[in-house]
Amino acid sequence: MSGILSQITALLILLNLTAACLARANSVRHRPVGPVWLFLATAVAGLLLFLVKIDGLSAVDLVLSISPTLSVLTCGLMLHGYSEKVFGRPLLATRELTLWAGFVLCVSAPLFASVLGLVPIDLYAQGYHSSWVYLIPVGFGAYAAWRGYFRLAALMFGVLAAKLVGLIPTENLFDAMTDGIAFVLAVVIGVRHAAGCVKRRRAQSADAVVGSDSLRDQRFRSTLRWIMVAGVSVALLWLCAQHEHGRAKGTYCPIPNVITCICLAAAAAFACKRYWRAWASPFVAGIVGAFAMADPHCGPYGGALGLLVGLLIAILPWGTKE
Fold it and tell me: I need a surface site. Which of 28, 66, 278, 311 has the fewest CB within 10 A?
């Protein structure tokens, strides 16, 4: 029972990707199907992803090989995304989503800095026995409830429930609050929120300075884009050269697997950019790259390769949907 939360969250991650593809395909149909049919289709896909195993591993197991422990907050965000894609009714409002990202970043940044040895205290060890750690979800949950964000408050108290019931494999409260996937998604949400604020401010001041530096801005953006392309390309080539140590415990990762990973990740990133969202291309390509390795021990290396390939596709000025 201790790993059931991570398994459910991993399944929800796969269901979100499936629902996104089905919702996109449904939007271009002459007669779109209703949410009930989308729900049934994703339910069948979920059963297949959970039950069908190749070499003893299902798709859920491969997701867990990338991130073995998934938090309550990641589970809540996946439920939010699934409800929005299938039923058109997101669980969290825009401000709740922003607060969710802020909470994850505030918890993850010092925690990961502690794990990497950048600060002298071991915060992760405090999550096993220190009572003050319980004040973090309780305090934020009380604040969310005071502001009227009751669903976000329910997620915070769900963190405590998961710890008390024993749904977390490690019995560490920090593992119920954050994980690597939650941190990446929080960064994406934070960047989108900041970009939206900047865009709104520019729109408000556009009437005063219409077109004054448009050509200069266009040249600067083009130059910055190609500098980023060069930087990501160099990083990708360097990571490809590390295939001899790409497998678990620093062992060899076959070159055909690397080539397959890059090709499938590039195709997935281009399709995501063309038919869905450009900003999601790196994450979709990273997931596809991890699965394309066809070896759970090479999954993290394939995920990193796919992430860089997707980032490169997202930066390039071609392939954006009309």
Answer: 28
Domain coverage including residue 114: 4-192
Radius of gyration of the chain (CA): 21
DSSP-based three-state secondary structure for 54: strand
Which tens digit of pLDDT belongs to each residue from 40-72? 888 888 888 777 777 777 788 777 777 778 889
What is the average pLDDT value for the chain, to the nearest integer? 81
Task: Check whether residue 254 and residue 110 sit in a common domain.
Answer: no
Q: Over pLDDT 90: what percentage of the chain? A: 2
- pTM of the entire structure? 0.62
Q: Are residues 22 and 168 in the same domain?
A: yes
* Residue 166 burial (CB count, 10 A): 12
> Within this chain, do residues 10 and 81 fall inside the same structural domain, yes or no?
yes
Assigned domain for 321 exists? no
Establish if 280 belongs to a structural domain.
Answer: yes
